[in-house]
Amino acid sequence: MAGSSAPRPDSDLVARVRELQPLIRSHALRAEQGRRVTGEVVEALAGAGLYRMNVPRHYGGYQSSLRTQVDVLSEVSAACGSAGFMALIQAGCAFIAALFPDEAQDEIFTGPDVRVGGTLIPGAKAVAADGGYVVSGNSPFATGCQDADWHLLTALSDTGDAGDTGGGPPEMLWLAVPMSDLKVLDDWNVTGLAGSGSNTVVAQDVHVPAHRVLPLGPLLAGAFPSRRNSADPFYRMPVLLLFCVWTAANALGLARAALTEFGERIHRRGITYTFYERQHEAPVTHLQYAEAEMKVSSAELLTADFVELIEARAADGTPYTARERARIRAQCGYLARLCKEAADLIGSASGASSLHREVPVQRIVRDLNALSLHSFVNPTANLELYGRVLSGLDAGTPFL
């Protein structure tokens, strides 16, 4: 488990993380080549208190505002998209862990800097046994698993033989499992978010007691078993909508970094086979720069809009309409598209020299492409979902 020293409260968490940007940036290429965030960066983020953002206060956590979380995760992502994605997954999974039964939380949160990973891909099977479940199977895309203490593994549990009168569809469960009980397959070899260490973890006949199980069905309906946190407005925020917040931060940080890098490069290089000795003097550059900046600014406004709505709903307890939930999903996908388009525009305007591995622009383009392919972020899928609701149809998914 990371660091035992107590960071200052989260009032200056953004500033503390911003101070780490030179370190994170200097390790970004190493993370990509090693296919995982370096240990130095992981420990530095823990020392700054990043992993405490969603840990309950009674365990020493911060329960940071969503605005703070967006700013913090954006700062990390601006320095390294893979480090930012790993941070958002582990900070987010700490939130999910706080919804588990209190007995499980006492086991997980033995320190506020504990690192919790997880996935929402039911690749494993859980069989009821001995006051809990025995779980076997694979859990792919387990971001940061090599540096995690716990993994929230998604599995399906049979509710009975479908041919029997008491049978029914499988139940989806989140099961909290120590990483020491799981095997990691070194299979993360990809072109985007390559340093996130999103390998597959494998459970083989792992016994998970009932108090370390969180059923997904009731959770999506707003019910979870934690007694201590059930009345806390912070933990009443829908976790799937929070995933929109966390991934938005990754997209914004990457896109802002692309803008910053472009703004510096255009003063150092010319445009080959033209009269422009400095790229910033060319009208085409002005158009490209302005359009990219407008796309990122629009993405920031979309993020601010749904962050404000989620925090307002947490404060007043007003239930969401299906249209509001679908709109947040659509906004998440659309802002990711805008950020990707901005980075693509900058990448195409950065010249062949930007293809070198040490130049951040090419990595940012690949990272944003990878983020946009995530099934929960995918712009086209989210727009279709919202369009169905606007057209008076069911959303077609329980994952709202």
Give a description of the structure:
By secondary structure, this protein is an alpha+beta fold. The protein has 13 helices and 8 strands. Strands 1, 2, 3, 4, 5, 6, 7 and 8 form an 8-stranded mixed beta sheet that branches. β2 and β3 form a beta hairpin. α10 packs antiparallel against α11. The radius of gyration is 22 Å and the shape is globular. It starts with 12 loop residues before the first helix and ends in a 10-residue tail after the last helix. 47% of the residues are buried. The mean pLDDT is 94.
In terms of topology, how is this protein built?
Blueprint: H1 13-19, H2 21-26, H3 28-34, H4 39-48, H5 66-79, H6 81-97, H7 102-108, E1 116-118, E2 124-129, E3 132-142, E4 150-157, E5 171-178, E6 183-185, E7 199-209, E8 213-215, H8 216-220, H9 239-265, H10 283-316, H11 322-348, H12 360-373, H13 379-390
Parallel strand pairs: 1-4, 2-4
Antiparallel strand pairs: 2-3, 3-7, 4-5, 5-8, 6-7
